[in-house]
Specification:
The protein has helices at about 1-5, 10-20, 50-55, 65-70, 95-105, 125-135, 150-165, 180-185, 230-245, 265-270, 300-315, 320-330, 330-360, 385-395, 425-445, and strands at about 25-30, 30-35, 85, 145-150, 170-175, 190-195, 200, 215, 245-250, 275-280, 295, 365, 375-380, 395, 400, 410-415. Helix 7 packs across helix 11 (about 300-315) and helix 13 packs across helix 15 (about 425-445). With about 450 residues, the protein is α/β, with parallel strands linked by helices. It has an eight-stranded mixed β-sheet, with helices on both faces. The protein has a four-stranded antiparallel β-sheet with strand order 12-13-16-15, covered by helices on one side. The protein contains 15 helices and 16 strands. The radius of gyration is 27 Å and the shape is globular. Bound molecules: pyridoxal-5'-phosphate (PLP). The site of pyridoxal-5'-phosphate has 14 residues, from helix 7.
């Protein structure tokens, strides 16, 4: 056959082997290879095969929930807000050290490393984490109250499943974190969008007549509006949650990044009635792919949450948890936090300075001095979705603020991430961004004709 069709013998052998492996032919000893009597089930003849056009017109056969979830314009690359496409800089991460600690775990292996994670995760990690949260975030806890998860998404999922039933109401900051929204929708909860002002979540008198089961907030740095929840607002929220028996889910995703002033204590630390579940993650401060986060739950929820985590999510990654425990214990984590905080603080200051100097006065910058993103607020006549699309054509990856709203957007703007961008790229990139935004404002502005 190789001679007949003019290819190499190996190609023919490989083709035969493939046909054999897939069940199209049978090798019979003494009589060679023949076409199989019965074809594999998945073999459709040409007349049955569907073109891409046909399949796109077919119902997708998803559940109603699945349809709703996958039709929403979320995007996994929301995780890292790039600002300039492809310019992610993870060089600040201490790779060598991290590798050494992981190797150390495998050099002195324990059978626990090969097992599922039990009892809420690796005990030494829960111990060092408890100490860290007590000191840096004023969280009131003992190590048993911590459950190590595969990140905030999983933590939120567990809370939604264990604390709420289908159609229960959840208050969400509006605009708010799309990842939390997806989890609540995936659990068939009813979202009630609550406005955010300069002091954080701001329920109206009508909102205060409702009885949410869950209240999801990002108090130390609102996502995406870049504001810090005031102490007065924190107290009001705690008071209200206690009065209606709601659970507050406090997502403290980037509290390490506060560049000026003293951080306000966590909501959990201010709470005396055990209404707060505190959620943390290593996605921002280390790297998102590590998939390690944690929950701090009130004492009486420890057992149900351990059972729920084990039975629903079957956690593992004990060796990573052990390496992380060493990383924190040996002081490398604090050193890394200091290092990246200084670095991101510089990025933020440079970006702020450059944009402030170059943007038209009708564009306003958010100013929380925290986190890894900021917002350029735009006049109402702007179309932020169009602007983000125009930006993408110029390799600038910004997010339209309106995409973060549950109800129709109240304000226009773009969310700009700077944490993962090389420092030397900030000024040229900000200059290009300011130019683009200014062009959009000028082009969309319609002067009022008298
Ligand atoms: C508001 C908010 N919470 C939490 C996270 C982190 O989620 P995870 O721990 O699942 O990576 C992010 C990441 O972008 C976020 O923006």
């Amino acid at each position: 056959m190789a001679v007949e069709i003019g290819c190499s013998r190996n190609t023919v052998i490989a083709a035969y082997e493939q046909l054999l492996a897939e069940g199209y032919v049978e090798a019979r000893i003494g009589s060679g290879t023949v076409v199989a009597d019965t074809l594999p089930n998945f073999a459709l003849d040409n007349s049955q095969q569907l073109s891409d056009e046909d399949t796109s017109a077919m119902p997708r056969n998803l559940s109603k929930r699945g349809d709703k979830l996958t039709n929403l314009p979320a995007d996994s690359h929301f995780e890292i807000q790039e600002f300039i496409q492809g310019a992610n800089d993870f060089s600040v991460f201490p790779y060598k050290l991290w590798q050494k600690l992981q190797n150390k775990c495998w050099r002195e292996p324990q059978s626990a490393f090969m097992d599922y994670a039990r009892k809420g995760g690796y005990a030494p990690l829960r111990e060092v984490l408890a100490e860290y949260l007590r000191v840096t975030r004023s969280v009131r806890l003992s190590p048993e109250q911590i459950l190590i998860t595969a990140g905030t998404q999983q933590s939120l999922d567990l809370c939604a499943r264990l604390l709420a039933d289908a159609h229960d109401m959840v208050w969400m900051e509006n605009p708010g974190y799309w990842g939390a929204r997806r989890i609540f929708e995936a659990n068939d909860l009813n979202l009630r969008p609550i406005e955010v002002d300069k002091d954080g979540i701001s329920p109206s008198p009508v909102d205060l007549q409702t009885t949410p089961r869950l209240i999801y907030v990002t108090p130390s740095h609102q996502y995406p509006l870049d504001v810090v929840m005031s102490l007065t607002r924190r107290r009001l929220l705690l008071e209200y949650a206690a009065s209606v028996g709601a659970w507050i889910l406090e997502d403290d995703y980037d509290s390490e990044f506060r560049y000026r002033g003293r951080p306000i204590a966590s909501l959990q630390g201010l709470d005396h009635r055990n209404r707060v579940i505190y959620l943390g993650t290593f996605s921002k401060v280390l790297y998102p792919g590590i998939r390690v986060g944690y929950l701090v739950v009130p004492q009486d929820l420890v057992e149900p949450f351990r059972t729920g985590l084990a039975d629903i999510h079957r956690p593992g990654q004990m060796a990573v948890q052990a390496a992380l425990a060493h990383f924190i214990q040996l002081g490398h984590f604090s050193a890394h936090v200091r290092n990246v905080r200084a670095r991101y603080g510089q990025s933020r200051a440079l970006l702020q300075y450059t944009l402030q100097n170059q943007l038209l006065s009708s564009a306003r910058l958010s100013n929380a001095d925290a986190g890894l993103h900021m917002v350029i607020h735009l006049p109402d006549f702007c179309d932020d979705v169009k602007l983000a699309t125009e930006a993408r054509l110029e390799q600038i990856d910004i997010r339209p603020l309106s995409a973060y709203y549950i109800a129709p957007p109240a304000t226009r703007g773009v969310v700009v991430g700077y944490g993962y961008m090389p420092l030397n790229e900030i000024v040229p990139a900000a200059t290009r961004l300011a130019d683009l935004v200014n062009r959009h404002i000028v082009a969309t502005h319609q002067p009022v004709l008298l």
